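F.,

This is the one I mentioned.
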């Protein structure tokens, strides 16, 4: 049985997510009405999209302390990984993912509960931690095992 984060950690994650919204009060109103809130990509994070199946495999390959938030849509079978806003070309060669451009809108449920089939597989914890794109690319790429870059051995 997986351990659930303490309530204050989940609330800290929700507070962090709201801090990334253009208009947090609007997001709260949408969530109160069981609607998804729009979060434009680029200012606080970038988003990589892949299948839910690939995401579940990648979650097994990336240690929990190195994972950032991961949102899924269980009805559509897709998932989105939140990555640093400084993302460059690190994932360009990984054919199994799509990196969305700045301005694309990710529609998110609250951290505390799912809405319309969307649920956080890896909840924001309030720290602002995002997944390292090199680890994600390695977990989703050929072989599926994260590898350290050559510079790590220097």
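My design for it:
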């Amino acid at each position: 049985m997986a351990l659930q984060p303490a309530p204050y950690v989940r609330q800290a994650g929700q507070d962090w997510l709201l801090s990334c919204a253009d208009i947090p009060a609007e997001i709260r109103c949408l969530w109160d009405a069981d609607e998804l809130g729009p979060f434009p990509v680029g200012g606080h994070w970038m988003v990589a999209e892949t299948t839910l199946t690939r995401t579940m495999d990648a979650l097994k390959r990336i240690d929990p302390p190195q994972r950032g938030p991961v949102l899924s849509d269980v009805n559509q079978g897709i998932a989105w990984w939140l990555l640093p806003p400084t993302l460059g070309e690190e994932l360009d060669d990984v054919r199994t993912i799509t990196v969305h451009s700045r301005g694309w809108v990710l529609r998110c449920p609250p951290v505390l509960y799912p809405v319309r089939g969307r649920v956080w597989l890896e909840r924001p914890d309030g720290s602002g931690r995002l997944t390292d794109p090199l680890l994600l690319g390695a977990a989703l790429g050929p072989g599926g095992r994260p590898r350290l870059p050559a510079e790590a051995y220097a």
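The chain is about 25% helix and 20% strand.

Talk soon.
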